[in-house]
Amino acid sequence: MRVAEKQLWCLATAIYFEARGESYRGQVAVAQVVLNRVKDHRYPDTICAVVFQNQHRRNACQFSFACDGIPEVVNDRKSWAQAEEIAKKATQGQLYLTEVGDATHYHATYVRPAWAPRMNKVTQIGLHVFYKFKNGWLFG
Hints:
Elements: H1 5-19, H2 24-39, H3 47-51, H4 77-91, E1 105-108, E2 119-125, E3 128-133
Antiparallel strand pairs: 1-3, 2-3
Helix pairs in contact: 1-2, 1-4, 2-4
């Protein structure tokens, strides 16, 4: 799949700011959630639109870095290079975690989002817990 540079940048940005402190697998899992959302009809159909969805609503988006009101600055070049590599490989279908599967949500273990009890937990990797929709259940 050929992905525009801007879309790769958006995915790398999500990986970096959401998961740079996680293991490689944890970073791949975050990338996978973004790509799963792009494929899901309930969400926007581009990577950037998914990553920055609801960014104008403070603390009301899936990817907290996008709407927490804190300016984002890349200051760890090694972690950024890894995020870029994961973004490229994930969009090319070279990285896929079966335990994450078609998960469209995750949260850090230290938060309790209201939506979590209404979804199926699929796995935990590092400090992130991953979820997918329950059969037939749609967000309102």
